Amino acid sequence: MLTIIFGVAADGLPNERSPDRVTVRRILTVTLVVICVGYAFWKVEMTRSTTIRLEAAGYNLTYTMAWGWGMDEKFSLTPVGALISGPSSEWIEIWKRPYNAGLVIYRSAESGTYYFGAGYKLFIFDPSRGVLRASCDIKDIPVHTTLATQLSTSRSHEFDETIDPGARHLFTFIEADQQSGTIPTMPPDSRYYVGLKYLGKMGIVRSSGRLGRGDGVRFVPADRAPEPRLSLYVGCG
How confident is the model at residue 41 (pLDDT cuts 50, 70, 90)? Predict the structure, then answer.
């Protein structure tokens, strides 16, 4: 009678009933490849982005939304013609309701500095140096106009609607009938921030898909969507 030790018979011959290690490795390799390909496909399917050109800066701005167990957003800036992305906000977790997302875009009429409001953080971009800075300091918020000062000190929704009727918040879906486009050649002055030009906003497009969490992202320029109320806000906690 032959004694079997680790799949090898006592006479030195392979045990016919023991698994072929090469075959097992191949199966494991194929399984891992299938899992990786499936995960990559899922990530692509659950991610949407849109890109616009910041002509005055010489940069492309890309806004990306990722759906998964939660929701995350980010934006990145890439010099026009470059293959490698430049500075980025990194991923920002979306809290609570799905439309608590969005990016509002301003440019200083004097210095050319860009201000991006992402709800919880203020981002300041100096295109001359290619530097993007995130801030949670209210001192970095641009100077308020008279209207914005009244709104920022108000505690009454009725009063807000009296002095600024119909204004929308940054944290709202982009409606399906709001058309995309490019930044206007002559963007309007901001109603809320002194010396800034309002360029437009990016956000999630409203739909019934993804359990009501929107489906797709879009840029809506200033001439096709009103300026969100007080959207350069910091609320880092």
Answer: very low
Which range among 7-11, 106-110, 116-120 shows the weakest confidence by mean pLDDT? 7-11
Unique residue bearing structure tokens 């090469």: 22
36 Cβ contact partners less than 8 Å away, ≥ 6 residues apart: none
Contact 173, 225 (CB under 8 A): no
78 to 24, 59, 60, 69, 83: CA distances (angstroms): 45, 5, 5, 29, 8
pTM for the whole thing? 0.80
Find the angle CA(65)-CA(70)-CA(75) to the nearest 5 degrees.
25
The tokens 């309007």 sit on which residue? 188
Name the nearest CA neighbour of 131 among 92, 176, 77, 173.
77
What tokens were used for 199?
A: 């360029």
Express each pLDDT in 197-233 by its tens digit. Answer: 999 999 988 876 545 556 689 999 999 988 999 999 8
Across 105-122, average pLDDT: 92
Contact between 66 and 210 under an 8 Å Cβ cutoff? The reply is no
In three-state secondary structure terms, 10 is: coil
Q: Is 146 helix (H, G, I), strand (E, B) or coil?
A: helix
